[in-house]
Amino acid sequence: MYVAIAQVNPTVGALRENAEKALAVINSLAAATYPPDLVVFPAFALTGAPLGGLVYSDAFAAECLDVAKDFIARSSLPTLIGTVLPRPIEGEFSFFCEPEVLFCREGKGGALGFVDTEMLVDEDVETASVSIRLEGHDVTILLDDFPDSANELDKTDIVIMMLAKEYQGTNTMFTSSSQLNFLRATAQDYQTCLICANLVGGQDRSVFDGASVVIDADGEVICSAVPFKEEVLTCNVIPRDSDWKPTKPKTQLSTQHDKHTVKPLLPYEADWRALELALHDYVSKNGFNDVVIGLSGGIDSAVVATLAVDALGAEHVHGILMPGPYSSEGSVTDARSLAEKLGIQTLMMPIGEPFESIKQQFQKATGQEGSSVAIQNLQARMRMTYLMHLSNSFGWLLINTGNKSEAAMGFSTLYGDTAGAFAPLGNIYKTDVYGLASWRNQQKSIIPQTTLAKAPSAELYPGQLDSDTLPEYELLDQILRLHIEDGLGVDQIMEYSGRQPEGRALDSTVVSEVLSSVRKAEYKRRQEPLAPTLGSEDMGDDRNWPLTNGFIDHDRNLSRSDDLLAYMGLIYRWDIPGGWDISAN
Fold it and tell me: How far is Cα 152 from Cα 129, in angstroms, rounded to an integer?
């Protein structure tokens, strides 16, 4: 078959807009000299993903049904497209939307009958699949991933995977060597052609990388799509031992399009593209054109401003310099240098006068100057007052510049530098912020070397450095990764540390203090802006520890064999024949 794979970027809930985008792709392909025999869209191409609580909305369910009917009637080419459709909840007068695939041909078609009711709520379930006969070939259509039983792939000429696969690092992308090797081996083992159509785009915390790919029965990559961008691929898919002849002569195949393959991205390059897409889509899909960012001269604001320019264009990014009583001249110079290289508009709005005015009013009312911490936080809140006033006045979306290391430790000011609508770096550790900056500067030197070289500082009191309060970031991030990403407590982290080369062992007191700070800062993180996850543990949704919490998670370590055996003995007593054993023994 001559197949088109439409790697599209839908907006969640914008059903008719998404349908019009898909129909425009189909109409463009239909007008080509050689229209494809089949157009394949990803899962959820009509609805966007993830849908969250929308799946329980009766109004949304009805709209999904209306849009599906209209799409089928207007599709001019044979098409497979992902959506959700309503089905009644047993025993209730309401509906639940389930993942579905529509097949359309010349104004007719319908749903293929997928029954995977749990995909939308992140449960581990068997993969839904449907087999059809198309253009004389046996075609198996999958949602989400390969089936638990590979027998479903036996004697299948073509496997079409319609996916909404989130970016979780370069190793999960279809362009990565590990993923490609797996797909190529699968195609060879089952002598089947694989068509993997993946969603692309940013949706709140989620980023879909696209990277759609087509692999023939010999395990060769026929074509692959550019990650993190919308693209339509076309290629001839010829099953093994098929007598099918291409509609489009092989002599006229475009080597730039039909045989188009993409090189794998480097880790920081892929992360940058993911963050760029996440920021662009959050801004544009929420109806904003411009953003405002506070420029401190530090690494975080420099990376966020550069990301914003890459995502939105310099004309849509506004940088605000807000020096305070303890800001260094070097920081102001670095901020100006960055803005000049980026070509963005800047405003100079010093906080000195309002800061002093509020201090005087406080002293007049209370007879006190205020604590050192209060005075430091007042500066951050003055800056946020400026930024929010600009946002309200001009309709600019405020972009937060905080990183995951600071969020984990609570090293921030509530209603100060924690404010904003979206935090591109909110799930990026500080050491990785430097890695991103280094990669971006390799493409073009934008971020000043002085910004990269100087010690991080909030500059809220004379001579302040982050290291006055926090461990050095390389050490801190090592502890945070083990605790947040791997779920380890103090004992387990120290056990891990003891297995490391000499000189890299951790101090148990430092580890305990770090984990204690993480626990105490939960209330701050609940009030911080949305951040893309990129596959890491989200400090808000994923961690979700109680705010009022008397449990200290690092007092015990269940990995000790005696604890584990005692635990197993406790919970399995009920399984003894005859029920609970409550004897004295």
Answer: 8
Cα(392)–Cα(396) distance, integer angstroms: 7
Between CA 210 and CA 338 the distance in angstroms is 32
pLDDT tens figures, 34-61? 999 999 999 999 999 999 999 999 899 9
pLDDT digits (tens, 9 = 90+) for 60-70: 999 999 999 99
- Distance CA(337)–CA(268), nearest Å, equals 24
β-bridge mates for residue 202, sequence order: 207
pLDDT tens string 409-426: 999 999 999 999 999 999
What count of other Cβ atoms lies within 10 Å of the Cβ of residue 162?
Answer: 26
Q: What is the pLDDT of residues 491-508, one digit of tens each?
A: 999 988 877 766 567 899
CA atoms within 13 A on the CB side of 286: 18
Superfamily of 270-467+521-525 according to CATH:
HUPs (3.40.50.620)
Per-residue burial over 461-471, b = 16 or more CB atoms within 10 Å of its CB, e = otherwise: eeebebeeebb
pTM to 2 decimal places: 0.89
Class of domain 2-265: alpha beta
Averaged pLDDT score across all residues of the chain: 87
Three-state secondary structure call for residue 577: coil
Structure-token pair, residue 442: 């390799």
Among 435, 429, 438, 521, smallest CA distance to 479 is for 429
Look up residue 341 and give its two tokens: 């290289």
Token pair recorded at residue 185: 């081996």
The residue ranges of every structural domain in the chain are: 2-265, 270-467+521-525
For the chain, the 3-state helix, strand and coil shares in percent, each to the nearest 5, are: 40, 15, 40
